[in-house]
Amino acid sequence: MALKLNSENLHLGLSNIKHRKKGQNYNFLSDDTLFLKNDLKKTKNFQLFGGIPFEDIYNLLGLVIVSFFVRLYNIDYPESIVFEESHFGKSVSQYIKRSFFLDYDPPLVRLLFAFVGFLFGIDNDWDEEIYNELGIPYVALRFMSGIMGVLIIPIAYLTIKSAGFSRIAAFLVSSLLIFENGLITQGRLILHGSSFLTFTAFTFLMWVKFYTEEKRPFKLWWWVWMALTGVGLGLTISASLEGFFTMVFIGLLAIKYLWDLLSDLRTSFTQIAKNIFANTLCLIIIPVILYIIFFFIHIAILKYGGADELYISPEFRKTLNEYSMDDTPIDVAYDSVITLRHVVTGGYLHSHQIPYPRSQDDDTHHQVSLLMHVGDDEDNFWTIRTVKFAESPENTKESQELQESKELQESLDWIYDGALIHLEHFKTERSLHSNVTEAPISDGEFQKEVSARLFEGFLDTTDLWNVEIAESDKSDPESSERLRAINTKFRLYNHETRCYLFSHFIKLPAWGSDEIEVTCATNANYQNSLWYIETNSHPDLPEDAEMVNYKRIGFFRKFYETIVAMWEYRNERYSYASTSRSPLSWLFLNDGVSFWEDKYEERQIYLFGNPFVWYTSTLAVFGFVAAKLGIMILEKRRISNFSTAKAKHFESWAGILFTGWLLHYLPYLLGYGPPHLHYYFPSLYFAILLIGIGFDLLTERLTYKNRIIIAAIFLVASIYVFTLFSPITYGGPWTRSECNRVKLLNSWKYNCDLYDKNYIEEKEEIIEIDYENSPGSYYTKSPAFLTQVVEAETTYTTQGMELW
C-alpha cells in the first residue's frame, strides 16, 4: 500500500489544526475533556510546570504508584544474569576501571548505569553468572531501569491530555502501558531499551507542548518547549542509534510546521526566517551538541587501555595513559628488525613454533597469524632481508634469473617502491612463505596459506615479496618513494603465487590460539592488504638518526573514530543475528525472545507482549489507515465533508501518531537490524497512544458514565491478560497445563515443558551419589524427605510428589 505525504490530501495526519475562531470553545467530548481554545491565557493553566488540574494530579499519582509496584515487584529475582545484562554490566565495570571499550550504541544509558554503579560501589568484573558470587549490587542497576519504565506512564498521560483529548483516554492509554508485559520485562532488567523509550516519549511530549504554543511564537513557553524538544532528541540519539528515527520523525513535523507558516500569507518572510533559525537551533544544533558532549564524557572517562583498543588507530591509542611507545628510527633499510602491523585490524604479523594441523608431523611450516595484543612479543619481530640465492637442484634456474635482475644490496641501503625482499622471522629465522595450499579457515581458491618456512640456506620464489607503496604521509615526501616507519602504507605481493599478503577479523580455532588468520589473497581487498612498519631498529643506524612516532590527535578525531568503530561493531553484531523472523510478525505478536531459563527451579523469563494490548494497538493502526482511505474516497465522491474543526483535530493527531509508529517501524521492514521483538517497542508506544484517540472518537456521543464503563472494561481485560502471562514476565512459578492453556499460537516459543504438572511449594535439591557403584542413585538433601535410592529411570513418590 503506497502512503504518500501530501499536505492537501492525506497529510499522514500532519494537516494543521488552525480552524479555530477567536474565543470559540469546541466542547466536542464530555465535561472532562481539555477543550481546544484560542484563549491561550486559559490553556496556560495546563502547562507542565504547574497549573495541572487536581484531577490530573490524582490520576498521575495513582498511575505512578501502580506502575511503580508493577515494574519493581520482586526486581531482585532472578539473582543470575538475564539476557544481555552481562553486556551492560561489563560496560559499567569498564567505566569504573576507566578501561577503553567499544559498543554498538551511543554511551548515554551506559553512562547512567555506570553512575549508579559508582554510587553503589561496583568494582567487580562480570565474569560469573550468579550475582551473589560476583558481589555486585545488581538491584540498584535494575532499579534505575525500572524507574525509567515508570516515567513513561505520566509522560503518556500528559501527551494525550496536552494534545487535547479526554482525561479518560489519557488514563486508559497510561493503564495499557502499565500492564504491557513486554515493556515490564524490558524495564526490570539492566538493559538500555527502557531508558531509550522514555527519552523517545519525553521528546514527543515536549513537541506536543510546543505545538500547543504555535499561536504564541517566540514567547517564553514557545522557546521552552522547542528547546526541551531538542534536549529530548539529544538524549534519544545519545541512548541508541535508533534514536535517529525519532529525530527524523520530529524533523518531518517541524518541516510541516514551517510549511504551514509559508502557506499563511499573514506570516512575513522575516517571521519565517526566524522560525527556520529557531527550529535549526533547537532541533538540530542542541541535539548534536548533547550527542557530542556525551561522547566527550565517554572518551574522557576511558583513559586506560582495554580489550578493544586494537580496533582504534594507533594515534588514538597513544592518548591512553597506559600505552606508550618510544620514538623509532624512521629510515628502514635491509637487515632492519621491524614489527609489521596490519592497517585494518591493527594486529601484528606474528609466528610461533607450532605447525598447522595438516602438517603436525612436519615442522617445516610454522603458523603465521596476527597477534591482537600490544606489547613487545618477541614473536612479532621480523628482519627484512635482501634477496640471496644459493645453488639448489630445485631452483637453480629461477635463482639465477632473479639474481641477475637484482643487485646485491649493501648495508643501510633503503628499501624503495618495487623492491624484492624476503621477511625472516627474527626468533626462528624462518622465511615468510606463501603456500599453494588453501588457507586454513577462509574458503575458496583465492585464499592461500601463509607460513614461516624453514629455508635451510636457500630461498624459494614463494618466499619473495614485492614492496608496493600504496599510501604515504603528505608531511613526509620520502615516505612515498621508500619504506619509512609509520608513515608508509604498503602491500606485499608474491609473484609466484600471484597474491597479496592479507588479513581480516576471522579467527583461527583453538589450535591457532584464537589469533587472527593471515592469508595470501589473489583478489585481495585493498584496505585488508595494507601494512606498515611500527617499530624499526638497525645496528648501523647513527645515534642521531631521524625518529618518528604517532601523531597526537584531538577530541574530534577520537570522536570520529569512535563513531566509525561503533558502526562497524554494530554491523558485525547484526551479521550474526538471527533473521528467522520477519518484522511483519511483530504486528501480530507471533513470537517473543527467551531471556532466561532455570530448569532446576522450573522458571523462565520470556520477552512477550500483552496480547490484548498488542492486538488492540495493531487494530488501531489499521483502523486509522482504513478510516483515512474511507474519508478520502467519500470526500473525493463528495458524499460527505470531514473538514470540521473536530474532524481535523482527530485526523491530525491520529495521523501524527501513525507517522511516529511508521517511522520507527519502517526501517526494520526495509531490512535494518535484526528482527528482535524489543525493537518494535517505540512503534508500539505510538500505537498505544493511537488507542486513546480512537477511544475518544468512538465514544464521543456516549455519556460520561458509559465512557467510564467502556474504559474500565478495557482496563480489566488488559489486567486479566497481564496476569495470565505474568509468570514469564517475572519468572514466577507456573504449571505445564496453565502454560499450555494460554499458548494460543504454535509460534509462541516459551517453554511449557519446563514446568511440572503441579506446583511444588518447596524444591528439594537432588544430588547424585556413588555413581560408579550404583548408577543413577540419588538422595534428597533435605532431612524432611525420605532418603531413597532408586535407579535412574525409576519413578518414585516422596511425600506425594513425583520425582524423576
From TrEMBL:
Its main location: endoplasmic reticulum. One of its GO terms (molecular function) is dolichyl-phosphate-mannose-protein mannosyltransferase activity. The chain crosses the membrane at residues 57-74, 107-123, 135-158, 165-184, 190-208, 220-237, 243-259, 280-301, 612-631, 652-671, 677-698, 710-730. SMART domains: MIR. Keywords: Endoplasmic reticulum, Glycoprotein, Glycosyltransferase, Membrane, Repeat, Transferase, Transmembrane, Transmembrane helix. Its EC number is 2.4.1.109. PROSITE patterns: MIR. Residues 329-387, 412-470, 480-536 form the MIR domain. It comes from the Eukaryota. Pathway: Protein modification; protein glycosylation. Pfam families: MIR, PMT, PMT_4TMC. One of its GO terms (cellular component) is endoplasmic reticulum membrane. It catalyses: a di-trans,poly-cis-dolichyl beta-D-mannosyl phosphate + L-seryl-[protein] = 3-O-(alpha-D-mannosyl)-L-seryl-[protein] + a di-trans,poly-cis-dolichyl phosphate + H(+); a di-trans,poly-cis-dolichyl beta-D-mannosyl phosphate + L-threonyl-[protein] = 3-O-(alpha-D-mannosyl)-L-threonyl-[protein] + a di-trans,poly-cis-dolichyl phosphate + H(+). Gene3D superfamilies: 2.80.10.50. It is an enzyme of class 2 (transferase). It is a multi-pass membrane protein. It is found in: Endoplasmic reticulum membrane. Transfers mannose from Dol-P-mannose to Ser or Thr residues on proteins. Belongs to the glycosyltransferase 39 family. This is Dolichyl-phosphate-mannose--protein mannosyltransferase.
